[in-house]
Amino acid sequence: MYEILCYFIIYSFLGWCTEVAYAAVNSGKFINRGFLNGPVCPIYGFGVLLVISCLTPLMDNKILLFLGAVLLTSTLEWLTGFTLEKVFHGKWWDYSQVPFNLNGYICLKFSIIWGLACLLIVDLIHPLTRIVVGNFPLTAGRVVLALALTILLADGISTVMTVNKLNRQLNRLNEIGEKLRIISDELGENIYESVSAIKERSEKLKDLSEALEESLGKRVDQLEQKAEALEESLGRKADQLEQRAEAFREELKKQWKQAYEEELERYFFGKRRMLKAFPDLKFTINGEHLTRLKEKIKQGR
């Protein structure tokens, strides 16, 4: 168990170094890759342990070793991506635009790369790792291992809290966005109903004037003048009502937009790193607000 845990920590760290190097080549800058905040990518640790445990008997048959590594690492990556999406409601990487992908979790290109990397690990890297672990002082090794596992556990808890906070922030942004939409819809409907009611009363006055014209010819002019005056007065009131409602609506929208921007700016530990580490991160809900958060992160560089 001591050796297995040592291998797990070592390969998790080497996997993180690989991810950072790959990101540096593609973007020309340092990005702290990986789900956790620290310099480890546990999926690499699990992946190498899985390959070593299951495929060591195939060391002499490179073709079977390669195919087995492709199958095991691809299965692990698919299950990890699927589990993260179901647990945290987010897709942390997405190969949907890469040819020969499966659900966006895995693709042929990287599966082949993992297979080739495992050939290198089994033939060269792991024998050296075994020598290093075997010759490292046992007492000191246990202390270092215990410290590394403690930090890893604390990092895992911190990361889960960060993801939950990010989800809650996106939910708040969505609630504010819904309130903005409701304000616009409801006030628009109220204005329409008020103006329609005024127009309906005006039409009734006109109809009444026309009916009276037939029976009370002499008073028609007076009634028409009164109807026109009343219609004009009601029209002015309708305009005033519409203007006041519009001003009230704009004030509410201004307040909620300010609240939305303040929520976008709200900082909590780990958010910036996570959004930079996973540029393809997509949540199953609140995708629009996540895009706005990513834009804010880019603007803050």
UniProtKB/TrEMBL annotation:
* Transmembrane feature ranges: 5-24, 36-56, 63-82, 102-122
Q: Which residues form a coiled coil?
A: 163-258
Pfam families found in the cross-reference section? ABC_trans_CmpB (PF06541)
Q: Which domain of life is it from?
A: Bacteria
Q: Which InterPro entries match?
A: CmpB_TMEM229
Q: Which UniProt keywords apply?
A: Coiled coil, Membrane, Transmembrane, Transmembrane helix
- Transmembrane recorded as keyword: yes
Protein name per the record: Uncharacterized protein
